[in-house]
Amino acid sequence: MTLIRHARTAQHLAVRALTLHGLAHPVTHVLLAAAATAAAQAWDAGHRVQALHPHARTERTTGG
């Protein structure tokens, strides 16, 4: 599995645990830590934040 895919999967699992168990649950803490570690590894390997969050690639128009 590529680093970026691993980071996306870890993030998805952490959000699901947060939704199901809440922030104080130990499983949520472990999955959030795993997601942060995976994202840091992807960043260190040269991936950009936009690769982790493809929906954030919206272009903004300028002007009035």
Explain this structure.
- The chain is mostly helical.
- 66% of the residues lie in helices and 0% in strands.
- It is built from three helices and no strands.
- The longest helix has 19 residues, at 3-21.
- The chain is elongated, with a radius of gyration of 14 Å.
- The termini are far apart.
- The mean pLDDT is 82.
**Number of separate helices:** 3
**Multimerization status:** single chain
Element order, helices and strands? HHH
Task: From the alpha carbons, calculate the radius of gyration and give it in angstroms.
Answer: 14 Å
- Estimate percent helicity: 55-70%
A few lines on this structure:
The protein is an all-alpha fold and 64 residues long.
